[in-house]
Design brief:
- The protein has 374 residues and is an alpha+beta fold.
- The protein folds into three domains: 1-75 and 143-304, C8orf32 fold; 93-131, N-terminal domain of TfIIb (Single Sheet); 321-355, no CATH class.
- The chain has 13 helices and 14 strands.
- It has helices at 2-19, 23-32, 35-52, 60-76, 103-107, 133-139, 144-158, 199-203, 230-236, 242-256, 262-279, 298-303, 321-326; strands at 78-79, 92-99, 110-118, 124-130, 141-142, 162-167, 171-178, 183-188, 193-194, 211-214, 219-221, 331-334, 339-342, 348-351.
- A hairpin with a 4-residue loop joins β8 (183-188) and β9 (193-194).
- α2 (23-32) packs across α7 and α3 packs across α4 (60-76).
- The mean pLDDT is 90.
Length: 374
């Protein structure tokens, strides 16, 4: 495993993240993103949020990031478990044997070609696992590797400082630097989640060990942001010594930053100090919390949907004359439309699940547009 970690450090830093800096690839990404529309939504939501919290340390970029995540998840990229058969349209199942990559596959950095076999017509469907973010702008599908790769490119194209984050327990995501909050924000495009770094350990129950972030400027071991069980994580970090990991990362950073301006070096150093302070104090989440800055600005918590619905009046249904006469009260809720129909009162429509409850706690309506991921 040590060799695999060291090889990943090198390839992600020396090849992958530098692709995000290619101006022509960034232009291709920008051509796919409805940037003005997303900015308009961000401005509206920022205005709403700052009404609640006038001293909020958030800006339009923070809200644009949330809109970009939402657009990427719901409108742009698609999850693939099994490809539909390209010959008969039937259901396929991935086989353990991989298919040979073509010259074109290799040109686009294909790591392997999965064989999605159709049991109906016995056809082998090719599913190349592309590692090139430019190609992913065309295919717009894949699993977490493709999602994080393409989303990180989109973040760079929009102008965010972004990192590609690799978790050796088989997941990847993105981090984006918030200039207003002066910290790196966890962003998982597969989940449409921002600033919930304990999602994997606390929410998914992952046993974390090594989580490394890569940008054009530096490699950073960010494991500690994603854990509130530092001792347990340390006990699992046995693949290579801490000294070897530290020296390897320092060596890569030193070479990359050789030609960097003194101002930029100082800026990165200041960020590193802030980040290290964050790392040395493990979070203690309450049940259902996934880290992030729960004690932070109200505007930011509202933006990420973390404060729950605004305080509503307790709902009381008062029977109408018709219902009193019939001695019948009949109410149904449609989860898809998010509305109630009061059948016993001339099919009266009431919109929003919260408008029909007396009290609610720790409950929300989750909309999933990509059912392949469920």
């Amino acid at each position: 495993q040590a060799a695999n970690i060291l090889k990943t450090l090198q390839t992600k830093f020396e090849h992958l993240v530098l692709m995000y800096e290619n101006p022509s690839i960034q232009q291709k990404a920008l051509a796919s993103i409805p940037l003005q529309q997303l900015k308009g939504k961000a401005q509206k939501k920022l205005a709403q949020a700052t009404k609640l919290d006038k001293g909020a340390h958030v800006n339009e970029e923070d809200f644009l990031l949330l809109e970009l995540l939402d657009w990427f998840k719901n409108d742009f990229f698609h999850w693939i478990n099994n490809l539909p058969c390209s010959r008969c349209g039937g259901q396929t199942e991935p086989k353990s044997d991989y298919l040979l990559p073509t010259d074109d596959d290799l040109r686009w950095n294909v790591s392997r070609v999965e064989n999605h076999y159709c049991n109906q017509c016995q056809f082998c469907n090719r599913f190349p696992r592309y590692n090139n973010p430019e190609k992913l702008l065309e295919t717009r599908c894949g699993r977490c590797g493709e999602w994080a790769n393409c989303f990180t490119l989109c973040c760079r194209a929009v102008g965010f400082e972004a990192r590609y984050v690799w978790d050796c327990t088989d997941h990847v995501w993105t981090e984006v630097y918030s200039s207003s909050q002066k910290r790196w924000l966890h962003c998982d495009p597969c989940e449409n989640v921002c600033d919930k770094p304990l999602l994997y350990e606390t929410g998914w129950g992952k046993k974390l060990s090594y989580i490394i972030a890569f940008s054009k400027d530096e490699v950073v071991d960010v494991t500690w942001r994603y854990s509130c069980k530092h001792k347990e994580v340390l006990s699992r970090r046995t693949a290579l010594s801490e000294a070897t990991l530290r020296e390897t990362i320092n060596g890569l950073n030193k070479r990359r930053q050789r030609s960097m301006s003194e101002n930029r070096k100082r800026e990165l150093l200041e960020r590193t100090i802030v980040e290290l302070v964050e790392f040395i104090s493990p979070k203690t989440p309450k049940p259902g919390e996934y880290g992030g800055r729960t004690s932070g600005s109200m505007a930011w918590r509202v933006a990420r949907g973390e404060t729950g619905p605004e305080k509503r009046k307790e709902v009381i249904f008062i029977p109408s004359e018709k219902e009193k006469t019939s001695k019948l009260f009949h109410l149904i809720y449609n989860i898809v439309e998010d509305s109630y129909t009061r059948i016993s009162n001339n099919n009266e429509k009431i919109t929003g699940w919260e408008t029909g409850v007396w009290k609610a706690e720790s409950i929300w309506r989750k909309v999933e547009t990509d059912w392949k991921m469920v």
